[in-house]
Write a structure and sequence with these properties.
Keywords: Signal. By secondary structure, this protein is of the alpha/beta class. The chain has two domains: about 55-180 and about 310-390, Rossmann fold, CATH 3.40.50; about 180-305, Rossmann fold, CATH 3.40.50.2300. The chain has 14 helices and 16 strands. The chain has helices at about 1-30, 35-40, 40-55, 70-90, 110-125, 135-150, 180-190, 205-220, 240-250, 265-270, 285-290, 315-325, 335-350, 360-365; strands spanning about 60-65, 95, 100-105, 130, 155, 175, 195-205, 225-230, 255, 280-285, 300-305, 370, 375-380, 385, 390-395, 405-410. The protein has a seven-stranded mixed sheet with strand order 8-7-9-10-11-15-16, sandwiched between helices. A six-stranded mixed sheet has the order 2-3-1-4-5-6, sandwiched between helices. It has a three-stranded antiparallel sheet with strand order 12-13-14, covered by helices on one side. Strand 9, helix 10 (about 265-270) and strand 10 form a beta-alpha-beta unit.
Length: about 425
C-alpha cells in the first residue's frame, strides 16, 4: 500500500509540473503573443504607455499671484521669473529627482477672501505639493493657516509683511522674498542719523504698517526722530491731505513705503515737497513706477533688484533669456523673486530625493542655501526668512532711458540687512 501511495504522488507531481511548464512556455516564447495580447486595443496600449511615463510621479506646484488688479504687474513678474527659474534649475527638463513638474496658476485678484478660495481649490482639487505666493501681504496672511492645515510647504514670494515670518509664522512657511525689516535696515542706512527728522507715508494695510514699524525701529536706533506717520487707503488715488500734513511737520526726509500702480509719486512732485526742503527716500520700485519719478533724480535709497545691480552668471542668464522670450524686456523688480522661489523648491526636492512631504522637507530646508539671480540666499532656521543681498542706490539720469535708473552705491550683504527674529 505504501508503495502504491508513493507511486500515485509521483505521477501527480509529474502531471502538475508538466502543466506549469507548458503554461510558462506558452507565455514567454520570443516573438509570440497570446490571444489576449493580440486583441489589446490601441487605446489600451496608449494608456499603458502613459502609465509607464508617469510612474516617476509628478510634483504639482500651485502659484497664487495677483494676475489682475492693482498688483497685476507684480504677479506677472513673479510668474515669468518662476517659469524661468524652474527651467534654469532643472536644465530645461522640467523634472527633478525623476519626477515631472507641473504648475497651476491661480489669480487672487488681490483679495484675501479670493486668495483663500483659490488656495483651497489648489490644495483639495488640484492636490498640489507646494504653494507659492502671493503678490499681496494681505492675501498671503489669509492663506498661511491653510499651509499648516494641509501640511504643505508654502514659499512666500513676493509678500514682505514682517508678520508672515513673525507673529503669523508656522513651520511650513519659507520666504524667498525679503521682509519689511530687511527693507527698513537698508532704507535707514541711507538716510537716518542723529537728529534727522523723518516723516513716513504708507498704504493702510499690513504691508504699510509693518514697513513703517520696521523702519522706525531702525531709524530710531540710529538717532533719528519720526515727526509724522501718514497712511492712505491701499486703493487711494488722491493723497493731498496726507502730503499736506507731512509738509506741515517739516521733516528733513520723507520715507515712502508703497506698492501698486496707484503710486503717490506724481502728487509728491506736484506738491513740490523737495522745493519745501523735504528730501524723498524710498525703495526703488519697478520700472513702470520709476517712470513717474523723474523729479527724484539724485534720491538716495535702496533697491530689492534692478537688472544691472547683481553681478553673477545666474542673473546674466536671467536677463538674456528674459529679453529673448519677452520682446526685449528686461526682468523687473519681482522677476528674480519668482526665480528664487523655483530654485528653492528644486534644491529642496534634490535634497529629499523627490519627496514632497512637508514634514520631511522642513528640517532639510532649515538653514538651506541656494543660488539665485541676487546671489546666495539662506533660509534662517529660526523663522525660515531668506537672508539675501540688497542694494544701496541713487537714482540717476542715464542716456537711452526714459526714467531715472537705480545706480549702485554698494551691495548690502545678507548679514548687514539681517532682520530681527519676530516669531
Amino acid at each position: 500500500m505504501k508503495k502504491l501511495w508513493y507511486l500515485f504522488m509521483l505521477v501527480f507531481l509529474v502531471v502538475i509540473l508538466a502543466a506549469c511548464g507548458g503554461e510558462q512556455s506558452s507565455t514567454n516564447t520570443p516573438g509570440k503573443t497570446t490571444d489576449k495580447e493580440e486583441t489589446k486595443t490601441e487605446e489600451q496600449k496608449t494608456e499603458t504607455t502613459e502609465t509607464a511615463t508617469e510612474s516617476g510621479g509628478t510634483i504639482k506646484i500651485g502659484v497664487l499671484a495677483s494676475l489682475t488688479g492693482a498688483l497685476e504687474s507684480y504677479g506677472k513678474q513673479t510668474q515669468k521669473g518662476f517659469e524661468l527659474g524652474l527651467e534654469y534649475a532643472t536644465g530645461g527638463t522640467m523634472e527633478v529627482a525623476g519626477k515631472k513638474i507641473e504648475i497651476v496658476y491661480e489669480d487672487t485678484e488681490t483679495k484675501p477672501e479670493v486668495a483663500v478660495q483659490k488656495a483651497t481649490k489648489l490644495l483639495e482639487d488640484d492636490k498640489v505639493d507646494f504653494l507659492v505666493g502671493s503678490s499681496s501681504s494681505g492675501d498671503t496672511l489669509a492663506v498661511l493657516p491653510l499651509a499648516e492645515e494641509y501640511e504643505k510647504i508654502m514659499i512666500v514670494e513676493p509678500a514682505v509683511a514682517d508678520s508672515i515670518t513673525g507673529s503669523e509664522f508656522n513651520p511650513y512657511i519659507f520666504r524667498t522674498a525679503r521682509n519689511s525689516s530687511q527693507d527698513a535696515y537698508a532704507a535707514a542706512a541711507a538716510i537716518a542719523g542723529e537728529g534727522v527728522k523723518i516723516a513716513t507715508f504708507a498704504p493702510d494695510y499690513s504691508f504699510g504698517w509693518d514697513g513703517v514699524s520696521a523702519f522706525k525701529d531702525a531709524a530710531l536706533a540710529l538717532g533719528a526722530e519720526i515727526v509724522a506717520e501718514e497712511y492712505a487707503p491701499a486703493d487711494a488715488t488722491d493723497f493731498t491731505s496726507n502730503l499736506q500734513k507731512i509738509i506741515d511737520s517739516k521733516p528733513d526726509y520723507l520715507f515712502v513705503v508703497w506698492a501698486g500702480a496707484n503710486s503717490p509719486w506724481g502728487q509728491i512732485n506736484d506738491m513740490k515737497l523737495q522745493e519745501n526742503g523735504i528730501k524723498v527716500s524710498t525703495g526703488a520700485p519697478d520700472i513702470p513706477a520709476l517712470k513717474t519719478m523723474g523729479q527724484l533724480v539724485g534720491m538716495e535709497g535702496f533697491s530689492v533688484y534692478y537688472h544691472t545691480l547683481p553681478d553673477n552668471p545666474i542673473n546674466d542668464w536671467l536677463v538674456d533669456e528674459h529679453k529673448k522670450r519677452h520682446n526685449g524686456e528686461v526682468p523687473d523688480l519681482f522677476t528674480p523673486g519668482g526665480f528664487a522661489a523655483a530654485m528653492a523648491i528644486v534644491t529642496a526636492l534634490e535634497k529629499s530625493g523627490g519627496d514632497a512631504d512637508g514634514n520631511k522637507l522642513i528640517p532639510l530646508m532649515e538653514g538651506m542655501s541656494f543660488e539665485t539671480p541676487k546671489g546666495t540666499m539662506t533660509f534662517r532656521p529660526e523663522d525660515h526668512q531668506a537672508l539675501q543681498p540688497l542694494y544701496s542706490v541713487t537714482l540717476q539720469e542715464v542716456d537711452g532711458f526714459d526714467y531715472p535708473v537705480p545706480v549702485l552705491i554698494r551691495e548690502l550683504s545678507p548679514s548687514e540687512t539681517e532682520p530681527p527674529i519676530r516669531n
